[in-house]
Amino acid sequence: MANLTQSELQHLRHLIGAHETAYQKLNTYSGQVQDAQIRQMFTKAAQDALNTKQKLMSFLNN
Asked: Is 4 contained in some domain?
């Protein structure tokens, strides 16, 4: 993989942070809601955010 510029690195860190925040919030929401379908929706969205964060982090490890 080509080296990242400072600007690209900053954007990548920002995206990683945003997905971590989304994961935390969605996970919290899923624990607070009573409706099973909505809980499942929040849980899936939280997992998707976590997966995306991990994929973005892989760019830092290469």
From this structure: no
Q: pLDDT tens digits for the chain (62 residues)?
A: 568 889 998 999 999 999 999 999 999 999 999 999 999 999 999 999 999 999 999 988 76
> Would residue 60 be called left, alpha or beta, if left means φ above 0 and alpha means ψ between -120 and 50 degrees?
alpha
The CA distance from 17 to 34, in Å, is 28
Give dist(CA 18, CA 60) in Å, integer.
16
Contact 39, 33 (CB under 8 A): yes
Domain total of the chain: 1
